[in-house]
Amino acid sequence: RNFYYITILRDPVSRYLSEWRHVQRGATWKASLHVCDGRSPTTEELPSCYAGDDWSGCSLQEFMDCPYNLANNRQVRMLSDLSLVGCYNLSVMPEEQRNRVLLDSAKENLKCMAFFGLTEFQRKTQYLFEKTFNMNFISPFTQYNSTRASSVEIDEQTQQRIEALNFLDMELYDYAKDLFLQRYQYMRQKEHQEARRKRQEQRKILRAKQARLRERGENSSSTDYIGNVERW
Where in this protein does the record put region Disordered (predicted)? Predict the structure, then answer.
């Protein structure tokens, strides 16, 4: 069997707000083991943002203020090889170096995936998926732009704060969007070239067929003329 890694990325600010709303309703990640290099992180390496059973009802400000919040730069962390930076042990290397290694690793892993899509481009994502794997969905995607995150109104200062907290995800998303649109344009171009090649082949077959018909008609006329001469 061949196994393929695929993923869907989302605009970092929308994704962050969506996770906050999810956590606010009582969701936790306690079942996540966060295993890296064969072990789970210690409580010192990965402290909890809340003391109770969950973090339900937390405000957006509380969500942003927790320095251990795994919602920050989640997409980079989940796509990168954490073992390159010592997993969750932040003392292995300087923060700036750690961030660069994680971002480079996430970009490389994303680039090497068989396919990735973007939530903000659902129809293009469907098109690329179908062309990549040569299979079609039963029904076309419907582009929904209304989500729980889109209903959250934030001011410019909060927007900038979220972008700052997710600066690695912001850079990864810019890279992903550029690569995604390049792949989409390439696939469309390839499809147009294939359609043009098929039309050229069809015209070539048609011209050959018409030539054979003309040749048969000319041969038939010559035969009839010679036959008539012999009879005359």
Answer: 210-232
